[in-house]
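Per reviewer request, we include the raw input and output of the structure prediction for the construct analysed in the revised manuscript.
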Amino acid sequence: MDIKVVSGNISDFRTDIIVINIFEGVEYITGSMAAVDKALDNAITRLITDGEIRGKYGEVTIIHTLDKIPATRVAVVGLGKQNQLTLDKVRNMSAETGRQLRKLNITKITTVAHGSGVGRLDSEKVAQAITEGIILGLYRFRKYISPDLESRDIKELTIVEKDVNKIPVLERGCIKGSILAEATNFTRDLVNEPANKKTPVHLANIACEMANNYGLDCVVLDKEKMAELGMGALLGVAQGSHQEPKFVILSYYGDKDSKSSVGIIGKGITFDSGGISLKPAQDMWEMKGDMAGAAAVMGTMRAIAQLKPVINVTALAPITENLPGGLALKPGDILKAINNKTIEIETTDAEGRLILADALCYAQKAGLSPVIDVATLTGACVVALGTLCTGVFGNNQALIDKIVQASNEAGELTWQMPMFEEYKDLNKSDIADIKNSGGRPAGAITAAQFLSEFISDTPWAHLDIAGPVMSKEEKGYRVKGATGVAVRTLTNFILNLAQDNK
């Protein structure tokens, strides 16, 4: 989509539709809306008087201009109560409006910067929110659908601003919003792909291709190198599949004067059958998305490479399938991770924490700090927090606070979960150093406690995205299928950390 910012009066633009806004309870209209209303012979005022336009949040009223202004149609969108307007509401409203206009076969939209005037929101952030909202909200995964079934897409978005001095500010917001949204959609594409099209080899190749396109370093460790490094936990999960496991390392060097690097780790199970501890058949297809953590860190690295913060970032993605082949891991088996800690296998369906264990050890040995892992780790977190919220665990409160702040900026819901020491007892094994499942009670907490055994005292946080990783409905900028959750949160966190380090 071509997104641009121009100066002028919105009523003068020749376009498919112009989008203006109104707050709930407003009786007298001013500014851009007043000019449009006058040109339309006070049609908007009459609709307000008649109660058809109320300014309720999310309300969209379409008015045909009948050649009274150059635009074919006008959309009046409600922003709700003025004192309740937020950037996330602007983001959601832009997504919903974009989808509604697409159904009308509109291809060119011209809009005001919603909320940057009397709404008193920051102009740059408003432009970013509008851009993110419309790109994320219009996303569709149609790669395997015949082209003749596709409807027309919106190809152009123009934001109009009267004050020429604000143009550069709005343009910065649009650029950042576009980078973040496109990186999120890149992640969505990866998660939505069927498992036969994104085997570990395929996913590693995509990571390297992305790295080459955006100036990142990419190293892929094969099975032999993993064995040499002692990645027994990762290789144990991989042994049930004919597909070769891969361990992807993506590096961004934004601060050449520093040897330190932030570490982000993503779980990359390209299909999770549960292994010998086989999952129920119903909805097992969703397990093609069990590599969403790996996809999220890849999308984050793509965004960081374009935004160019002064900081070093390394992304790690352990990638494999979890299948019940003849050589598959069995309950009761014992594996050894890089740090020589032995792990009793209580269930082969707790495989994500096994591959992350080796990745966390690798991050610590590499000196990465802080370290954040992202994983569709537990159904228990879905039970605890539902399908809209990510659970945040960790060993460093300052780090957790910064992640929550970054998620708030992105509009992605997070909630800090407890890490009570007493729950470590549930992971104790009679025949090994630790077992890979503490059972059903407090399952999300015991999974996080398991991971903590492989990172020592390095500042670390764990994001369990099992709930919000997929959506069954279109609402706001969440669409059906993969959501791309955590990309914008992680990117915001890294940008904020780089700013703090100045």
